[in-house]
Amino acid sequence: MNKYYSSPEFEAKYTYHGTDLGASWTKECTFFRLWAPTAEAVVINLYAGGTAGKMDLLAQEKMTPDLCGTWTASIHGNLHGFYYTYLVTVNGKEVEACDPYARTTGVNGQRAMVIDLSSTNPEGWEKDRDPHAGQKVTDAAIYELHIRDLSMDVHSGITHKGKFLGLTETGTVNSAGIPTGLDHIKQLGMTHVHLLPVYDFGFTDEALAEPQYNWGYDPVNFNVPEGSYATDPYHGEVRVAEMKQMVKTLHDNGLSVIMDVVYNHVYHDQPFCFNQIVPAYFSRVNADGVWSSGSICGNDTASERSMVRKYIVDSVNYWADEYHIDGFRFDLVGLIDVQTINEIVATVHEKHPNVIFYGEGWDMPTELTKPNIELAIQPNSHKMPGFAFFSDTLRDLMRGRIQERTARGFVAGAETAREDLDASFMGMPDWAAQPCQCINYVSCHDNHTLFDRISMTAPEASREDRIRMNHLAAAFSILSQGTPFFQAGEEMLRTKPDGEGGFDDNSYRAADGVNALKWDTLTEEEYHCNVEYYKGLLAFRKAHPALRLQSREEVLAAVKPIAVSNPQAAAYLIDGNIFVIFNASKKAFTVSLPEGNWHLNICETRAGNESLAQVSRNAVAAPLCATVLTRC
Question: What is the pTM of this model?
């Protein structure tokens, strides 16, 4: 069957192009359509509640075979708030499964709910818009955040701890009255909040009063908000309404919303609802029955199959349409094929031209089910012009190769090839077709935090010098061409001690004590100063369009590498008006400036648009920091 699923004959006969899969509600009637081409019979189970195993079956309705392997049924009456599953007979065996196109579910995602989506819209939803509509992807500054991390600290000042609603609270402060939560993100100067998975994921038991911590890279229901982030996981409309309220509040506060999506695998392969209904169709399984595991999760998604591709395209469009999501970050997108990614970008941009897309374009082994399939990896960036990729090139240059835990990077004193620094600063590493396809970062949820990595690779350095190294890494990533991206708390010298004298580099299910942002650290001068430095860098970047160019042609015309004598330094002249020096050595040195007078805007621990001094002819590049000047 796996070979047949990917055959032209199967796809010609069973590819459904309609837009009505799932449960389509009206007050008078709900219409159901399910794609199940291998089924012998399908029955809808209608339930009073959403808790699996509860004996509250209200009715059963037989479905009728229809176009292209789909089954349909209509149930009259207002079904909003009722729950349902599909009872599917395949090869003589009956299985009960959730609807792959479920819009919401009961607790733990095992029963879908029929929903009047308009009833979940917050006040003013019809006028809600992306606050950065019309801007370029390179104008963005992205803040990667886990829902729980923001609010769980005892000093967060946030009432709805660990919930969507925690991101709707303004005016929150720590024990010293310093802004926390949403207000902190706004004041930093971020433009976009990137939320780690907020769709319905596995491992975390939504029924628990204190759900287990998890990053959420375990998809269960792709089109359903996660119930553990809702104040009530039992009633499906609550999670929908509260997620929309969160999105609207972020928009109202000038922040766009990016959703982390994980279409490359699912939580459990065979129990996944799509694979229950059409056995093993959703996943890559070879001729020997072995499930592909390039994702290291045991079940790579077969995006090259027509109805899997349709499902992913439909899903992304649904989040953009229904929840007003402004961007999508794709986990391990290198396991998804190029055609699927281009269809996503094209179809979403038809209605939402401002939505941004980026992902992890790592080249990972996977067993494709069709020949001649190209995958969405970094070297194929020229084939996906509307899609950007994380620049692990810049990350590894700054902090050291991830695969080598103690390898030093540029900021910790490693002598780095100047041509590599130049290419990354200009947004043109060898894999990038255009600078606008570079997402520049030095830390994210994966691997060690930036400050922990610096502590590991420069153990002999003083704390003061480690903070300067943190500044240097931040300055390089923020001032480089491309789009800057930050792990939440990087600006607060975020650290994740493992309790054994080391640091946790994979805290995906560690305790809140490890993962939560420590808001009271902001009462200490070194943390406060670090936050102010990030704010200054972002303000400087925002003030200078020449730092936010889109194309190779623009960058090559505007950015000129400048030769310096120090092998642990690099310098650049941008648009003839901005002079940038990165000095990773522990000694100051002097650089000749172009003619004229120059304002010193960034130096030592200070950054911003204010002139700290005026200089001409020469500039002193202070040790372990960035020095930036602008023409008077």
Answer: 0.97
